[in-house]
Amino acid sequence: MGSLAAQWPPSDARRTGNAEMIDFLNTAPPPSSVSVDPQTELDKSDSRCGAFRTIAIQYAPGQPDPWIQRKLAVFICFGLGVWSFYVVVGRVCTPMIQRRSSTGYSRGIGAGTLVIFVVLWLMFGWSYLKMIMTGPGFAKQHVPSTITPSLFSPPSVDLVPYSTFTQNPGDGVQPSHRHDIGSDALGPDPSEFAPVRNVVADLLQRTISNQPSSSATLPVRSQAEGKKRADWRTIERPVPQIEVGPRWCRFCKINKPDRTHHCRHCGTCILQFDHHCLWIGQCVGWANHKFFIIFNFWAMTFTLFLLIFLCVVTANASTVDGQVIGLLAVSALFALFTSMMLFTHIHLILTGRSTVESFKGRDQHEQESAILQREFGLIGHYSDKRKVLARWKEEWGGSQVDARWRFGSKVAMWRQEMGLSWAGWIFPIGRPLGDGLHFDSNPRFGPNGEWLKRKDWPKGVV
Ligand SMILES: [Zn+2]
Ligand SMILES: [Zn+2]
Questions:
Q1: What gap in Å lies between CA 138 and CA 353, rounded to an integer?
Q2: Near ion ligand 2, which residues have CB within 5 Å?
Q3: Helical H runs in 353-404?
């Protein structure tokens, strides 16, 4: 790992570009000193005492959540796994094999389903164990700690994601050191459902922008603000500003590599942070994202099998078993959850984004919708809205704002995350490519992550 550490930070100490969700969250004003030790801060407060003070320390910025809180769901998953084995083997299949099942199914059906169940249960258990035992990649193990940067400029552009609606590439690029400041800057905290929600919002956005025009039936003046409707040719696209300089984490005291974020639950910086997963008790990041995909695949297969099998058994049984019904309900819940996670994360991999990075696309959509609504009103003028969106798409060549790390073909991006061997795509073996610190950058972005118009793309890029 020494060689990796030697490569970081870059010699010119410039931020190599990255303006992701965490950059949008630094909403608190900068303190006089960014080197705040949570323990010291708590020592200042004499009003706290006893248990409250202990809790305050445990939840202090930069500290991981209590171990039992982080791992509780893991024990629940283990319990559900053992319970599913008991119900299916002990209460469903064994009676079939002993020819005393109320379903009337034969010994052969009982033995066959038992074998399928045990194989799927073992695959589910193996992939889950691999998932919880493989760390996401901790930046502190790869990046040397550095002293508090002396340069600091207030994070003016952090107050809102898009402080200006126009930006020429290169303009607005301010040399500064970036800090995670204040409670909002402990790190992004996307929920498990965040990527699913983003995909749905994306689809809704496209549906709305494809609505048939009704402008002929509406007045020319914007109903929203009562002003003259803008010319669609003059409306500028909102573009996020970019800052230059290392992103320094005050908790880990390191310059964060690209795509690294500080997890507020684990209390440390995670390489290619995706999200903190309750069900595995740790983060999903660079080193274990592939196992997350594989686990979701086997969990989905396992729970779908349970769902179908137990539905058939219940429909044909003359007596109702409460535990079978209970397992049926739990299986349905987890089948839905894991299938949504699986397909959403495959989509994210093929578009070169992590969960937290996909927020940038969502924010862009919101900003663009706000502009169109401001100029044309919430309802109507769909023709003009479509013309504006088409013009923006033309100017940016269809490049997405959150495609900073989309590089190469879909197959290449899949291999980057899942490894080269197809066996490692199905079974929880192997490792991702690369080192989690350096990533190929989309040439449609500038060296600091500026989202470039098509005219500014390097020669040969289409
Ligand atoms: Zn950190
Ligand atoms: Zn975490």
A1: 19
A2: 263, 265-266, 276, 283
A3: 355-376, 382-395
Place of tokens 């959509």: 365
The Cα–Cα gap between 208 and 211 comes to: 5
Residue range 32-47, pLDDT digits in tens: 333 444 444 444 444 4
Of residues 75, 110, 80, the one with CA closest to residue 303: 80
In contact, 272 and 260? CB cutoff 8 Å: yes
* Centre of ligand 2 from the C-alpha of residue 263, in Å: 5
Rounded to a whole number of angstroms, the distance between the first and last alpha carbons of the chain is: 37
Is 268 strand, coil or helix?
strand
Neighbours of 235 (CB within 10 A): 22
pLDDT at 257: 92
- Residue 462: is it exposed, middle or buried by C-beta count within 10 angstroms (0-12/13-18/19+)? exposed
Written as one string, the DSSP assignment of 209-257 is: HTSPP-GGGS-SS-TTT-SPPPPTTTPPPP----EES-EEETTTTEEEP
pLDDT at site 209: 52
Taking alpha carbons only, the member of 376, 379, 136, 377 closest to residue 274 is 136
- Residue 28: predicted pLDDT: 33
Residues of the chain predicted below pLDDT 70: 1-61, 151-196, 198-229, 243
In 30-60, which positions are buried (b, 16+ CB within 10 angstroms) versus exposed (e)?
eeeeeebebeeeeeeeeeeeeeeeeeeeeeb
Gap from CA of 280 to ligand 2 centroid (Å)? 10
CA quadruple 18, 361, 271, 64: dihedral sign: positive
CA 147 centroid distance within chain:
30
The CA 243 to ligand 1 mean position distance, Å, reads 19
CA 285 to ligand 1 centroid distance, Å: 14
